[in-house]
Design brief:
mainly alpha; 0% strand; globular
Length: 348
């Protein structure tokens, strides 16, 4: 039987073209983003950015819940406000990076299919924002974050499908106690709601796609977006979805809950969301998609824990056990990733 010629999937080929700086007709070896760019959170600068990401993520999440409780059917309006504010703030940071990265004095030529990839990131970005807010509008914070605890599995699969990032059996198995621990942490607050559950699941998948494609844009061999460029371009692409989304906003109902104080909260929420996103984009330049996803999972565990305190929910024994499982899973994951790096380094 004659063997078929090996062809890469369309999504993977698009990503490889971008990460290699273009398609000149020459075959290049697949670039392993996990090995090349995985600095790790033990680097002091990366750790500080990680803490800032956690802080602004918590601020944004609780402001989201507050605004959605105050404004009936306000998910669409809040999502639009976040996209508009973060696009404006990222435009400013194109020229004033605030010490987060160094500005390049020479403009880099954009690789082929750059606009298409940015559009993909923008679409997934808006879907992540919108359905994340819809989920919060229907269910408790802890339940929405619990549904997202399956993100590492999605990210491992999507990373393999798009960027050919390898995932060993050890890496996959290490994610199981992390997700199981998170489920235990919030089990006492679970309240199933089909619309909220579906929205949280869509948020989960779209966020994984967004993080993988964004990773490519900030980690290419010949072309790299800085965090503000990624934020601005993807935000501008997300604006395409604002017009059709605005059509479905029940303006009469929404306007009843809007007042000068709420407008102020919208503004603070948008700025906090921008800082959350920009620090996340900075981290993508240092971490692999899987490492980023696990860091995101730890963040969700902390948010679930804090939300139980903010909303007065008691902390159960199950939450302590879940935390122990989560920490054990993270240690196993770090060990598995270390083994992967050693094997690839030895092969080179």
């Amino acid at each position: 039987m004659m063997d078929r010629p090996t062809e890469r999937p369309l999504l993977q080929q698009l990503v490889l073209n971008l990460s290699a700086g273009g398609n000149d007709g020459k075959q290049r070896p697949a670039r392993n983003l996990a090995i090349v760019a995985d600095v790790g959170v033990r680097e002091p600068r990366v750790f500080i950015i990680l803490l800032l990401w956690y802080f602004f993520s918590g601020t944004t999440l609780f402001l989201n819940k507050f605004v959605l409780n105050a404004v009936t059917d306000g998910a669409s309006l809040l999502g639009i406000a976040q996209v508009l504010i973060t696009t404006c703030c990222s435009f400013i940071q194109l020229y004033y990076p605030c010490g987060m990265w160094k500005l390049s004095k020479q403009s880099q030529p954009k690789p082929p299919k750059f606009r298409r990839t940015v559009l993909v990131v923008g679409v997934f970005r808006f879907l992540t924002i919108y359905f994340g807010l819809v989920a919060l509008d229907y269910v408790a914070v802890s339940f929405a974050e619990t549904v997202k605890c399956s993100a590492p599995i999605f990210t491992v699969f999507i990373s393999w499908m798009i960027t050919a990032e390898p995932a060993t059996a050890q890496v996959i198995l290490s994610l199981v106690p992390i997700m199981g621990g998170l489920a235990l942490c919030s089990a006492h607050e679970l309240s199933f709601n089909l619309p909220g559950f579906t929205a949280a699941l869509i948020t989960n998948v779209s966020e994984c796609f967004q993080s993988v494609y964004s990773k490519v844009l900030v980690s290419g061999e010949k072309f790299r977006c800085n965090p503000a460029e990624l934020q601005f371009y993807s935000g501008a692409a997300s604006l395409i979805l604002i017009i059709p989304t605005s059509y479905f906003i029940p303006w009469e109902t929404v306007s009843l809950g809007v007042n000068p104080l709420i407008v102020g909260y919208f503004l603070i929420n948008g700025i906090s969301f921008h800082l959350q996103s920009i620090t996340a984009n900075v981290l993508m330049g240092f971490l692999s998609p899987t490492t980023y996803s696990v860091s995101n999972t730890v963040k969700r565990a902390l948010l679930i824990w804090i939300s139980t305190l903010v909303f007065g929910n008691p902390v159960t024994v199950g939450a302590w056990i879940g935390s122990a499982f989560m920490i054990a899973g993270i240690l196993l994951y770090n060990q598995a990733k270390t083994e992967v790096v050693k094997s690839v380094t030895a092969a080179d």
